[in-house]
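Practice problem. Given the sequence and the SMILES for adenosine-5'-triphosphate, write out the predicted structure.
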Amino acid sequence: MAAPHPAPLPVKHGERENTVIEVSGAEKVFANGTRALEPIDLGIRQGEFITLLGPSGCGKSTLLKMIANLLEPSSGDIRWWGKGFDHVGEDGKKLVFVFQDATLMPWASVRGNVRLPLDLAGAERKLADARVDQALALVGLSKFDLSYPRQLSGGMQMRASIARALVTEPNVLLMDEPFGALDEITRNKLDQDLLDLWYEKKLTVVFVTHSIYEAVFLSTRVVVMAARPGRIMREVKIDAPYPRNEAFRVSQEFAMYARDLQLLLAEASAAGAVED
Amino acid sequence: MSLDSKFMAFAMPVGVGVILLSLWEFLVWFYQVPKFLVPAPSLVATTLVQDWWLLFSSLWVTLKVTFFAFFLSVVIGTLVAFLFVQSRVVEMSFFPYAVLLQVTPIVAIAPLIIIWAKDTNTALVICATLVGLFPIISNTVLGLRSVNPGLLNLFKMNKATRFQQLVRLRIPSAAPYFFGGLRISSGLSLIGAVVAEFVAGTGGSGAGLAYQILQAGFQLNIPRLFAALFLITITGVLLFLLMVALSRLALGGWHESELVPEA
Ligand SMILES: Nc1ncnc2c1ncn2[C@@H]1O[C@H](COP(=O)(O)OP(=O)(O)OP(=O)(O)O)[C@@H](O)[C@H]1O
Ligand SMILES: [Mg+2]
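Answer key:
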């Protein structure tokens, strides 16, 4: 099959007004002296699917946690919708974090797990249950709402975790190697579903991965990072049209991007190694 | 498979018991061991029936002390654990004293407690509580702290209040540890009660099972001594089984320790 015909990108690049998250000169030095990140500048615009790609230890998780306000930058600044983190959570400014492992409560059913953010916010029971049903349908877990996490496969647990993220109807999804622990077939399936969801719901996603193929398949823009100290080495725009599907994976274009990133990544790893 | 293994789990220990008891019976008969040294199991059983009222009322006295002490251990232990996890400073300052509870032999301090307490029963309950308290404190503290850090982050990101964190995260996380503590503590409360009765000795008013054992020993009524011992043991086992059932009831749905391996 040939590459799919061009469809308009849901993103108009370069519009400053559409900046959702602005990282300016944010640097991270841990208490033990580890310089995890050099001052980083990164603007994330509405509707982008950004992937942070880089060798282990280059500070991808650190950067993502700072964006999620789970870590404070040592110096520099991060703005969310042009404001401080206090305003995050207001309507249209919702941000959720999806962890590497599903992080479900073993004592609660899938429904209980997915409903948690609404329960914590004190949402009304009926309304919450309706939203949970929607979220479960989106990830294809409707039939498993009463199952316990241990009764689900790894992929299904991850779906439940994503449903829990979606139930608050977020605008920005931050994902740290969410499918890293899964086999390739399951991972490809979840990548496709995530991408469709992003396209349909006009989400903004910041995604961390080790996989070049995952990065090319998903992203509007790949941020390649290098280690020691962690820094942004290059940004690569993936100018392939959406919606993307299996045909894209086997296209010439895909292979080209993968090759470019492979070279960059090798360079990034070497750059880190020299300073060892 | 599941039914089979359940049956085996029951049949095997019972079988071992029957064989050991038969052997005991046989050896006592074969060597003509006098009953004031080692009575035959059959004689112990007859004594148990003959002295039933005496023994049973003593058992009841000991059980009352045990249950009361166990109840106090659970209530106080849980409260203390909750206090400890509120702040590291509190835990650092007081945990060593909780350990003191654990390492001080109860026989050594029981006489003091008996002197200080108004009546013997109170003294017995205090002693047994001291013995049963520590496992509840240490297990519950460990449980309340053993929270999945990812879940904790999730709660924080959802702006959960401390109370929500406690009820929806810390308490369920602590439950398996707490029930582990219950199992240990229930047995220890019984032991504490019996030991304290021993120390209180014949002066004790309540006449619990330990009193019966002491008396039987003085009178060389060894079959009754064995019968009393048997009652204590069986009570300990029943208490343990009760705690196992309780734990299964509470955690059966989700915790690994209670999952039946599927065939
Ligand atoms: N809490 C911490 N204290 C001290 N150093 C830390 C801490 N967390 C991370 N680091 C260090 O910061 C650097 C970046 O870590 P980070 O976890 O962000 O890397 P990463 O790119 O996510 O790696 P991976 O791909 O292996 O997940 C590493 O050198 C790590 O050892
Ligand atoms: Mg990481």
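Check your answer against the key. The radius of gyration of chain B is 23 Å.
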